[in-house]
């Protein structure tokens, strides 16, 4: 018995290792006093039930059961790790595995197949010699096919598994026959025993007689337990494989009815729009309880066009059975209702899409400093984006996000407890059991990423890391945690940080940010020259950033008064983060949605009516003025789709002195494209980059070259050395004259237009990076395009790079993206004359596609200086001209946009006069040349107010061939080598708008209604002037008041070495 007990004690101890945060103890008993005492057992201190084992094989058999921690079959085979050399640079980047699913019903095909293979493999390791052959065939057939049918039933919300029931009936066929034969006799015997015995018979002694073998009742009891256990385990496995836990696998979005108004002969009439997302139908009803005979199915709803002037107005363009295009205009009660309707329609299109992979997903991002207190019982409002600020309509409550990213600070819970809490909340709200992608914790700073079950096979390359920025950068009470992963062909990065507290420690917070950028290692290791701001298609930065409002402590009551009056603008003008960001000291090129909610710190706990802005300390009273400490920012590659649908804070979660902050994003993603063409016969695509000129803010005399990185390239490409030339104010201008030819691994436009080229300017001396940037191939979709990007290194601007790019692809037309389904239309008096719903007769200048703010259909002028880190210039004579109506195809009539980001939209007059793409992703957009003051006000839900300066008229008149001199706050310039442009189209475009121009701060009193100057002819590439440039490696050149605190010296490498 001793060896047995010793082995059992060892096994129990091993079991405790596999329980994450539960500390367990094992106790052994060995005695021959009785039957119970002869059993070996172990007991866990955290409520794990006591198990008894009379024989060693019983213990082994118990550990063979799932989730017991030691002896289980792996669901997927794991190859033994071997030491291999690093891949040579010549090999193309490895793409994550790709799984196609034709529709929603096939979404679970891969998990089901995996489940089937797992059980068939287990069956091969079991002894089947004692089982009748017909039973063997029945079990094998169930695991081979019927288990997948049961999974489909569970996916559709049916908890009964017909395949399992059929198998059990087949296995117990003879048992049922015997039970039917024996049961009548047992019932008669049972009734006879129920009769009262006569008084003369003595009492039956209460002595237990132990039979020599197990009794029939015991065997039947064991049989019953076994049947129940089989059913429970089978259901558990099937339900888990499809994400079913007591509810539907997919959230069943309820039918929602909207009351709207429709103008008929200038008389508004009440209408009702009933949205059935699950059924894929949109009903038009004249009364709420009226007939539902008039409806359009999802594939007949062609487009939604939002009115830019009337925020509650929406145009629905549908196709009838006779292929006639109808345009129906409705007015909702308010903007929120319209947005809720659009989200439901978009969810319907996505749910019933025939595309194998999604091209758009939604991401929830939340941050909360929990104040070392556990969460309240109900935190639903946080995940439903309810509270103050930009919030979602109630009709969108049941629309689940694809990803939930939750960052916490001062979190007192364990990882498992917090993850289960969040999963439970989401299960209650969405009826979906979300899968945990990753969780990462540094002391009390934590980030967790959850995803829908159907995305499990689309996620790969998951990385986590953390950086300490506490005292001496060794304590983890302050710092950051990060998670990155690939979703098909799109990379995501998420950083949750808790920066230094204290109103007066602004510079230290800036230094915390720089340290996190330098030392946080996430993403592809082949992108070592680039920091995390360039490594990911979409990067989200959240957390308690601790930036305060810079008011004197005596103004505390004044601040509280302004908050009660909901007058936040004056307070936000003194927000430290906004001021530091505007001066390019932190979060360069990051974007934040407009703040329309109250400061989230510092409240009295258990209330949100009172700010506790004083705190008694031994050194005296400390003031913590109400501030927006908790923030969510984002940065994405150029020309990608990102829209913030919600940004606010809750007002009913009061256990902490911080309020939770939420944000919801609609994000475009690229699929792991598999070319449909034969690689041998398909024409070879090409990317040509030429005329590159870099202006570097350094005095170094070294030579430089450029590296081009991308997952779409066969290998990393380097240029030859550039030619250095002195530049004003101590910077260096480097010309790279040779044309660079890049070879993509796939030449299909469907694939290439979603790709980006990362550019790194390096020195030939030590391979050190002097600046990095990114160019979108979509910019060259139609023609040769000139670009200009801001070069940055470790979060600081280090120069600019100009050049041209031309794209050669194979034949093919990109498919329309889901986010192209919603457009925004600029109202025009001409539109009211267009009756009969024929969109082909509409003036193309009355609509702009800004559903994707990255692809604004606004006019961009080469005089404008953008501050988003990049800009593109396109000669108008090279743009395709499809015609004013977009009559390429049957459905092109409903596309009222001037430019679609995927090339599907019609190209009209506005597009021909538009010279540039631009992206407000990191701040303002096409500036006041293209938008009037009232337009800006109406687009505040989508865009930040323009703040880039216009060129002064005096400067332009003095030197017409010279670009405007930018101010220090701008991050990039727009340079063009376009042929001379006639000013007529520009004026024509402006006359159509009839809107006053918003002056920027640097204009200093230029009249609002002053039209922009026409584009001048420029014989060569203008040389942008960078005022007060400095060598970013020489901090001694910094003015004293702007000089950051001393930080570790930047190593002479592309990526710092810890």
Fraction of helical residues: 10-25%
Average pLDDT level: 74
C-alpha termini separation: 53 Å
Number of helices: 21
Shape: globular
Q: Any idea what the radius of gyration is? A: 33 Å
Structural class: alpha+beta
The proportion of strand residues reads: 15-25%
Count of extended strands = 36
Which parts are unreliable, with pLDDT below 50 for 5 consecutive residues or more?
Answer: 1-47, 81-108, 197-212, 245-249, 828-866, 876-1058
Biggest β-sheet description: 7 strands, mixed
Strand order of the largest sheet: 11-22-23-10-12-14-13
Domain Inositol polyphosphate-related phosphatase: 359-675
GO molecular function, one term: phosphatidylinositol-3,4,5-trisphosphate 5-phosphatase activity
GO cellular component, one term: cytoskeleton
Organism: Amphiprion ocellaris
Q: Please, could you describe this protein's structure?
A:
By secondary structure, this protein is an alpha+beta fold. Helices cover 22% and strands 22% of the residues. The chain has a seven-stranded mixed β-sheet with strand order 11-22-23-10-12-14-13, covered by helices on one side. A hairpin with a 5-residue loop joins β30 and β31. It is globular. Residues 1-47, 81-108, 197-212, 245-249, 828-866 and 876-1058 have low confidence and may be disordered.
């Amino acid at each position: 018995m001793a060896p047995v007990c010793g082995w059992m004690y060892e096994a129990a101890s091993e079991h405790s290792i596999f329980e994450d945060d539960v500390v367990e103890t094992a106790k052994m008993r060995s005695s021959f006093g009785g039957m119970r005492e002869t059993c070996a057992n172990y007991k866990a201190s955290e409520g794990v039930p006591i198990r008894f084992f009379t024989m060693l094989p019983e213990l082994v058999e118990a550990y063979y059961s799932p989730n017991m921690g030691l002896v289980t079959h792996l669901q997927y085979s794991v190859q033994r790790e071997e030491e291999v050399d690093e891949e040579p640079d010549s090999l193309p980047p490895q793409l994550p595995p790709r799984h196609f699913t034709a529709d929603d019903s096939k979404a679970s095909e891969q998990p089901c197949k995996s489940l089937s293979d797992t059980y068939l493999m287990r069956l091969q390791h079991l002894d089947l010699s004692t089982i009748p052959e017909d039973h063997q065939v029945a079990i094998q057939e169930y695991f081979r096919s019927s288990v997948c049918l049961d999974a489909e039933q569970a996916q559709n919300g049916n908890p009964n598994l017909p395949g399992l029931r059929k198998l059990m009936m087949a296995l117990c066929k003879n048992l049922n026959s015997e039970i039917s034969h024996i049961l009548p006799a047992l019932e008669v015997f049972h009734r006879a025993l129920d009769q009262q015995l006569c008084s003369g018979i003595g009492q039956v002694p209460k002595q237990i007689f132990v039979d020599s073998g197990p009794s029939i009742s015991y065997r039947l009891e064991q049989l019953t337990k076994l049947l129940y256990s089989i059913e429970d385990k089978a259901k558990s496995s099937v339900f888990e494989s499809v994400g079913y836990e007591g509810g539907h696998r997919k959230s069943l979005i309820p039918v929602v009815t909207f009351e709207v108004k429709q103008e008929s002969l200038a008389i508004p009439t009440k209408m009702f729009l009933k949205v059935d997302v699950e059924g894929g139908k949109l009903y038009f009803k004249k009364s709420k309880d009226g007939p539902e005979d008039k409806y359009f199915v999802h594939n007949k709803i062609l487009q939604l066009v939002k009115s830019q002037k009337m925020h509650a107005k929406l145009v629905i363009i549908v196709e009838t059975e006779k292929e006639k295009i109808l345009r129906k205009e409705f007015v909702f009660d308010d903007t929120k209702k319209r947005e809720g309707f659009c989200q439901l329609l978009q969810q319907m299109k996505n749910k019933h899409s025939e595309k194998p992979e999604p091209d758009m997903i939604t991401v929830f991002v939340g941050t909360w400093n929990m104040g070392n207190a556990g969460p309240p019982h109900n935190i639903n409002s946080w995940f439903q984006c309810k509270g103050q600020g930009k919030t979602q309509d109630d009709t969108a409550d049941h629309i689940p996000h694809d990803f939930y990213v939750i960052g916490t600070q001062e979190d007192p819970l364990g990882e498992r407890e917090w993850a289960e809490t969040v999963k439970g909340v989401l299960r209650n709200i969405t009826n979906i059991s979300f899968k945990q992608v990753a969780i990462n914790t540094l002391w009390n700073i934590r980030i967790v990423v959850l995803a829908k079950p159907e995305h499990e096979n689309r996620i790969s390359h998951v990385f986590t890391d953390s950086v300490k920025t506490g005292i001496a950068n060794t304590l983890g009470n302050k710092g950051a945690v990060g998670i990155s992963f690939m979703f098909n062909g799109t990379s995501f990065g998420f950083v949750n940080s808790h920066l230094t507290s204290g109103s007066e420690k602004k510079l230290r917070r800036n230094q915390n940010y720089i340290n996190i950028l330098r030392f946080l290692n996430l993403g592809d290791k082949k992108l070592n020259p680039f920091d995390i701001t360039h490594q990911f298609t979409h990067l989200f930065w959240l957390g308690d950033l601790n930036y305060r409002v810079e008011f004197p402590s005596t103004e505390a009551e004044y601040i509280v008064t302004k908050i009660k009056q909901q007058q936040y603008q004056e307070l936000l003008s003194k927000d430290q983060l906004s001021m530091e960001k505007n001066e390019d000291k932190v979060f360069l090129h990051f974007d934040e949605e407009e703040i329309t909610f109250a400061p989230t710190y510092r409240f009295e706990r258990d209330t949100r009516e009172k700010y506790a802005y004083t705190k008694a300390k031994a050194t005296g009273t400390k003031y913590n003025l109400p501030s927006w400490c908790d923030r969510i920012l984002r940065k994405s590659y150029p020309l990608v789709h990102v829209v913030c649908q919600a940004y606010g804070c809750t007002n009913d979660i009061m256990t902490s002195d911080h309020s939770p902050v939420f944000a919801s994003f609609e994000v475009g993603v690229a699929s792991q494209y598999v070319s449909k063409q034969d690689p041998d016969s398909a024409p070879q695509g090409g990317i040509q980059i030429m005329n590159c000129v870099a202006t570097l803010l350094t005095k170094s005399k070294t030579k430089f070259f450029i590296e081009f990185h991308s997952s779409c390239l066969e290998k990393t490409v380097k240029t030859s050395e550039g030619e250095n030339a002195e530049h004003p104010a101590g910077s260096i201008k480097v010309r790279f004259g040779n044309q660079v030819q890049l070879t993509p691994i796939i030449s299909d436009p469907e694939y290439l237009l979603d790709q980006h080229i990362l550019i790194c300017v390096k020195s030939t001396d030590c391979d050190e990076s002097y600046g990095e940037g990114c160019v979108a191939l979509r910019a060259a979709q139609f023609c040769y395009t000139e670009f200009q990007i801001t070069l940055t290194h470790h979060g600081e601007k280090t120069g600019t790079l100009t050049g041209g790019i031309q794209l050669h692809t194979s034949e093919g037309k990109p498919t329309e993206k889901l986010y192209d389904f919603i457009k925004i239309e600029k109202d025009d008096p001409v539109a009211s004359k267009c009756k009969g719903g024929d969109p082909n007769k509409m003036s193309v200048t009355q609509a702009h596609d800004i559903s994707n703010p990255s692809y604004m259909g606004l006019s961009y002028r080469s005089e404008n200086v953008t501050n988003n880190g990049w800009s593109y210039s396109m000669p108008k004579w090279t743009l395709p001209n499809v015609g004013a109506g977009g009559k390429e195809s049957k459905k092109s009539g409903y596309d009222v946009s001037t430019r679609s980001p995927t090339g599907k939209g019609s190209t009209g007059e506005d597009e021909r006069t538009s010279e540039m793409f631009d992206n407000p992703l990191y701040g303002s957009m096409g500036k006041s040349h293209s938008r009037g003051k009232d337009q800006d006000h109406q687009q505040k839900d989508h865009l930040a107010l323009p703040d880039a300066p216009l060129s002064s008229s005096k400067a332009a008149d003095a030197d017409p061939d010279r670009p405007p001199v930018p101010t220090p706050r701008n991050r990039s310039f727009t340079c063009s080598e376009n042929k001379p442009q006639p000013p007529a189209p520009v004026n024509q475009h402006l006359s159509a708008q009839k809107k006053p121009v918003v002056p920027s701060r640097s204009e200093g009193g230029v009249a609002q209604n002053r039209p922009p100057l026409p584009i001048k002819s420029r014989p060569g590439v203008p040389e942008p002037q960078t005022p007060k440039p400095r060598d970013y490696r020489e901090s001694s050149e910094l003015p004293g008041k702007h000089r950051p605190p001393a930080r570790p010296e930047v190593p002479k490498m592309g990526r710092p070495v810890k």
